[in-house]
Amino acid sequence: MTSRTDRAPGALTVGFDLDMTLIDSRPGIHACYLELSARTGTYIDADLAITRLGPPLEEELKHWFPADHVAPMATLYRELYPAYAIEATPAMPGAREAVAAVRAAGGRPLVVTAKYEPNAKLHMKHLGFDVVVVGNLWAEQKAQALREYGAGVYVGDHTGDVRGARTAGALSVAVPTGPCDAAELRAAGADVVLDDLNGFPDWLAAHAGGAAQGAV
C-alpha cells in the first residue's frame, strides 16, 4: 500500500467518503436489498434502509436478521452487489469536479469508506475515478488510512466521517447529502459544512491559497 512516506513533504492529500459523498448509492443498494429479501424470504424495508447509509452493512442487517444470520447474509449481499448495485449507481453532483479540484491543486484524492473494499473499487472503476480506495473502515477507524496516507482533509456526509477526520487530526469537511443534516454535522465537530460537493472546488482553492500564504 502506497503510504504518506512515499509522498513529497507538504503534498496535499484529500480523503473522501464514498456512499452519499462521491456516489449516490441509494438505487443500487435498494436493488440489492430487494434481491437479498427475495432470495432469503426475509422482509427488508429497502426504502428505509437507504435512508441510513454510512455505518457498516452488518449494522443494517441486524434490523432484519437474527444475530447468528448476519454474517452469512452480509457475505451473500456482497456477492450480489456487483450485479445489482454498480451499474445503477451514479456519481453525486459535483463529485467529479471535487476530485479534479484536488488534482488541479497538486494534490492526491483518496477514498476511505466503510464499504467492502472490492465493491468500492468496482464503483470507482465503473465511474472512471482513478483514486486510491481503502475500504472496510468506519468512523474512528477511518483515521488509520487517513494517517497512513497523510490526508490533511477528509470529506464526508456522516457524523462518523467527522469523527474519523477528527481522530486523524484532519480537517473535517462535511456535506449534508446523506442521512445527517447540516446541524448534526456541525454538532459532531465538522470544521466546514458545504451544501454539497459543488462548493468544494472554491472552498479548496481558498483553503490551499491560505495554507500557501501561511507557509511563506
Automatic annotation (TrEMBL):
Keyword Hydrolase attributed: yes
Domain of life of the source: Bacteria
The keyword Plastid is assigned to this record: no
Keywords: Hydrolase
Cited InterPro entries: HAD-like_hydrolase_sf, HAD-like_sf, HAD_sf, PGP-like_dom2
Cellular component aspect of the GO annotation: cytosol
Protein name: HAD hydrolase-like protein
Pfam families linked: HAD
Lineage summary: Bacteria, Bacillati, Actinomycetota, Actinomycetes, Kitasatosporales
GO function terms (MF aspect): hydrolase activity; protein tyrosine kinase activity
